[in-house]
Amino acid sequence: QSALTQPASVSGSPGQSITIFCTGTSSDVGNYDLVSWYQQHPGKAPKLIIYEVNKRPSGVSDHFSGSKSGNTASLTISGLQPEDEADYYCCSFADSDTFVFGTGAKVTVL
Amino acid sequence: EVQLVESGGGLVQPGGSLRLSCAASGFTFPRFWMTWVRQAPGKGLEWVANIKQDGSAEYYVDSVKGRFTISRDNAKASMYLQMTSLRVDDTAVYYCARSKVTGNSDFGYWGQGTLVTVSS
Predict the structure, then answer these.
(1) CB contact, 8 Å: A5 with chain B?
(2) How far is CA B49 from CA B35, B67, B79, in A?
(3) DSSP type of residue A80
């Protein structure tokens, strides 16, 4: 049950695209198409923005997209906006019917 | 509208116990997996435990096995987390969460969280 690995910080200018990688193992990300991503603003509860690797809940902007290759999942934010500045966490279903979150990535809009 | 409201947090001494509650409304509670996720101050999210729709299965992160017990009362649309042998590193905001769909795949809805502080 080790946390998935994410970069501590990612930054970009408004309008740019950034990608956050989330690296796991064959016991979690690599074995299940049940990767989800969460956005968390300071002092707020997390918000689901991607589920089942690449699906967006209704009401979530289409400038968020997800994908997966092997043991690594990724979240791309296209056309970075000031309101995208937040912490982002990946999460994967894992063996033994558990879940594991990523270490979290702080996105800064320059 | 889906609503999840946690309660029961507070200050407790190491070795003590606390029971958290999550009151759900706005959806058919018995149809969904329910989960507890915690976040230590200034740290990342950690999945703690979840429970199947009918309460027949429950799963825990290794660090709380044998100390925490998750349960639910479908008639009251409520979920609980009984925490015993609390340690300083259990200090965190505890969130109640519901899966987006009826499967056990993600956390589509969250409560506002309740703070548990373990300190002498």
Answers:
(1) no
(2) 6, 12, 11
(3) -
What is the C-alpha end-to-end distance of chain B, expressed in Å?
Answer: 40
**Is the pLDDT reported for residue B102 higher than 90?**
no
What is the spatial distance between Cα A50 and Cα B7, in angstroms, rounded to a whole number? 28
Helix (H) or strand (E) holding A101: strand A98-101
Exposed e or buried b for every residue in B12-35, given b needs 16+ CB within 10 A? beeeeebebbbbbeeeebeebbbb
Q: Which residue of B has its CA nearest to A88?
A: B44
A1 has pLDDT over 90: no
Residue to mutate among A5, A33, A99, with most B CBs inside 10 A, is A99
CA distance linking residue A48 with residue B42, whole number of Å: 20
Which DSSP category does B2 fall into?
Answer: -
User: Using CA atoms in the order A97, B50, A52, A9, what is the torsion angle rounded to 10 degrees?
Assistant: -100
Which residue is closest to B5 within chain A, CA to CA? A45
Q: Name the residue among A45, A89, A99 with its Cβ closest to that of B44.
A: A89
Over residues B24-39, the pLDDT tens digits come to: 999 999 999 999 999 9
